[in-house]
Design a protein that fits this description.
The complex is a heterodimer.
Chain A: H1 8-16, H2 21-31, H3 33-50, H4 52-55, H5 87-123, H6 125-139, H7 143-154, H8 158-185, H9 188-195, H10 200-208, H11 213-236, H12 248-259, H13 265-298
Chain B: E1 20-33, E2 39-54, E3 59-63, H1 70-77, E4 85-90, E5 93-94, H2 100-109, E6 110-113, H3 127-137, H4 144-157, H5 174-186, E7 192-196, H6 204-221, E8 224-228, H7 232-238, E9 241-246, E10 249-255, H8 256-261, H9 266-273, H10 280-285, E11 326-329, E12 332-334
Classes of the chains: A mainly alpha, B alpha/beta.
Chain lengths: 299, 339
């Protein structure tokens, strides 16, 4: 029977996958130039965060009262703040804080949202109804208000900032994932899994969740930028990361209040860093969406 | 609506031990309205009181037009739907009342092959994983290496090369995927398989191969099939007995040759008459009895005999009385008063 013949389709696929990773990346960047810009910003941030110890010229927490409020120049490329701390070093270490909070909050938030969204779609009925109304309650608060409320309950610290940003992300991801999972539930392979007697957890995690990866990845990448911005906002308000940890929002706050007229560089550089990071992640996220969307439509 | 329901003995082949017994099965899907508080505004009567039995090793064809409830009947037997009323007895056990472990056993005995080979396999899993997973979950073959051997064996049984174990479903053709679907159903060593339009989505040449495969498997493993199809020629080829459904009701049930040679119910006659004859001169010369009108909505089926608005034999009494599903000849059951 058909055992002997080889599917030509699979052979073509094999040929296609022989393109090297670099060639494929180049193809993608040509199609998504803005995405490539975003990608390099993200990459630069990740390198800064990982190699902060080697890249930073000074200790970011060292107060040097001999070198207070120095304008950008040869010794201090981006100047120093009111405690004599090197702004460039603090920016580089700040990338570590921003990425840690950004990735942790968006990954945990999106993953919880993925599982809850698929669960909601799979069980349906009353469970779905009640669960969605609870999600509606959470969604009715703007992200920053919700995060502020949670931080004021738990108290400000890096860990609590992550929790505060994670919780409002869950319903946002669950909502999007659920609508995709509702369509997946009607596909026969889910019925086949039920007919084979698989447990609910297996069907949700092994059969449904991997098939809603596209919306999950889109939500994940768009969350990172939002999380960085929210962390900076919370830190600016004094409810986020606490001194002396280098964080962009904190630096902005320290510089903006007193020194914006006389020593503007203290506030300008962290501001630029925040904008650039959020811009980069959003561009990258948008192009991830554009690449994944056609598959969403055909599925 | 309950005239046919009162018969205690479900129609089936007399004298055989009843392997599967479906008694007065009803499956109504609620139509709801409202966002917060959902009210039931109507019901879709997908299956409205059907009864039949099957014995071991038999293939029963279930035919009828789209929306007549044949797939729903299959899904009820598979326990994929919660039935509204009636009972399904498998080996004498009511399948709706099985506890968790008994249901898990039942799921191993009763399997399904779906219509669409493109959507019935999880696109994120390799063929080998798809076939090994049921054996691992049910602990049929706990040893990983022996399980892999069994996967290869299943692929061979279904006429696929063992190379496919490392492939993803999208790398295969429709016919090959359907064979994987069959192999997956066989992985738990079932006794009974619901073939839900199992060959309808395939090309004619592939169809013939898959049908032959199904026949070979039936003979080799002593399988029992509920063969749901709208393709009458395929049903005639593979089935021992055939049941005709119309709008959630069973209108005729007979052995295969009897049904095709001597159809009694006016709907069955019209259905068989609609099959074109592959000779253009004969086809153009023959007179078709075309059923007039549209199939009524299953949300609001006509009272009395559901076929009466379109039936040429209908008399006034058909509008009120539900015709009893009676045995007009040995092993030939019809739900019609006028024949």
């Amino acid at each position: 029977m058909t055992a002997a013949d080889v599917t030509s389709v699979s052979e073509i696929d094999e040929l296609r996958s022989q393109k090297t990773f670099i060639e494929k990346s180049a193809d993608m960047f040509r199609k998504q130039p803005l995405g490539a810009v975003g990608f390099f910003v993200v990459l630069a941030m990740i390198i800064m965060a990982i190699f902060a110890n080697y890249l930073a010229p000074y200790d970011p927490t060292l107060n040097d009262f001999a070198a207070m409020l120095i304008a950008p120049g040869a010794d201090y490329w981006l100047g120093t703040d009111q405690f004599g701390r090197d702004i460039m070093s603090r920016l580089i270490y700040g990338a570590r804080t921003a990425l840690f909070v950004g990735f942790a909050a968006s990954f945990v938030g999106a993953t919880c949202g993925l599982v809850l969204g698929v669960m909601s779609a799979y069980f349906g009925g009353t469970f779905d109804l009640i669960f969605q109304r609870i999600m509606d309650v959470f969604m009715s608060f703007p992200l920053i208000i919700m995060a502020l409320a949670i931080v004021s309950i738990f108290g400000p610290s890096t860990q609590n900032v992550i929790i505060a940003i994670t919780i409002p992300f869950i319903p946002r991801c669950a909502r999007v994932v659920r609508s995709n999972a509702l369509a997946i539930r009607e596909i026969p392979y889910v019925d086949a899994a039920r007919a084979l007697g698989f447990g609910h957890a297996r069907i949700i995690l092994r059969h449904m969740a991997p098939n809603v990866m596209a919306p999950f990845l889109i939500m994940l990448t768009s969350f990172v930028g939002q999380a960085i911005l929210t962390e900076a906002s919370l830190s600016y308000l004094g409810l986020g990361v606490q001194e002396p940890t280098p964080a962009w929002g904190l630096m902005l706050q320290g510089g903006a209040e007193e020194y914006i007229e006389s020593e503007p560089w203290i506030a300008i550089f962290p501001g630029v860093a925040i904008s650039l990071a959020v811009f980069g992640f959003n561009l990258f996220g948008d192009s991830v969406r554009d690449v994944l969307d056609p598959r969403l439509r055909t599925q | 609506m309950s005239a046919a329901a009162d018969t205690t003995t479900a129609p089936g082949a007399a004298g055989e031990s009843d392997f599967l017994q479906v008694n007065n099965l009803r499956m109504y899907f609620p139509v709801t309205e409202g966002i917060l508080i959902q009210r039931k505004v109507a019901e879709v009567k997908a299956v409205d009181g059907i009864s039949f039995t099957m014995h071991k090793g038999e293939t029963l064809g279930l035919v009828g037009e789209s929306g007549c409830g044949k797939t729903t009947t299959g899904r009820c037997i598979l326990q994929l739907e919660k039935i509204t009323s009636g009972e399904i007895l498998y080996d004498g056990q009511n399948v709706a009342k099985l506890n968790k472990s008994a249901l898990s056993e039942y799921r191993q005995k009763v399997q399904v092959i779906f219509q669409d080979p493109f959507s019935s396999l999880n696109p994120r899993m390799k063929i080998g994983e798809i076939l090994a997973e049921p054996m691992r979950v049910h602990g049929i073959i706990p040893d990983a290496r022996k399980r892999d051997e069994r996967v290869m064996e299943l692929l061979n049984i279904c006429g696929l090369s063992t190379r496919f174990a490392d492939r993803y479903p999208h790398e295969m053709s429709g016919g090959q995927r359907q064979r994987v679907g069959i192999a997956r159903a066989l992985s738990v060593n079932p006794e009974f398989i619901v073939c839900d339009e199992a060959v309808s989505a395939l090309d004619v040449s592939i169809q013939a191969q898959v049908i032959n495969l199904l026949e070979d498997l039936r003979d080799e493993f002593g399988l029992t099939y509920l063969f749901i199809s709208h393709d009458l020629s395929v049903v005639r080829h593979i089935c021992h007995r055939v049941a005709v459904m119309y709008l959630g009701n069973m209108v005729e049930l007979a052995t295969c040759d009897e049904l095709f040679d001597n159809p009694i119910h006016p709907y069955t006659r019209a259905l068989l008459d609609a099959v074109p004859i592959p000779d253009p001169t004969v086809e153009s010369a023959r007179e078709h009895k075309i059923v007039t009108g549209e199939i009524p909505s299953p949300m609001n089926p006509p009272p009395g005999c559901v076929f009466h608005p379109r039936c040429e034999l209908a008399v006034d009494s058909c509008k009120q009385a539900v015709p009893e599903f009676r045995e007009v000849k040995p092993n030939h059951w019809v739900a019609c008063t006028e024949v």
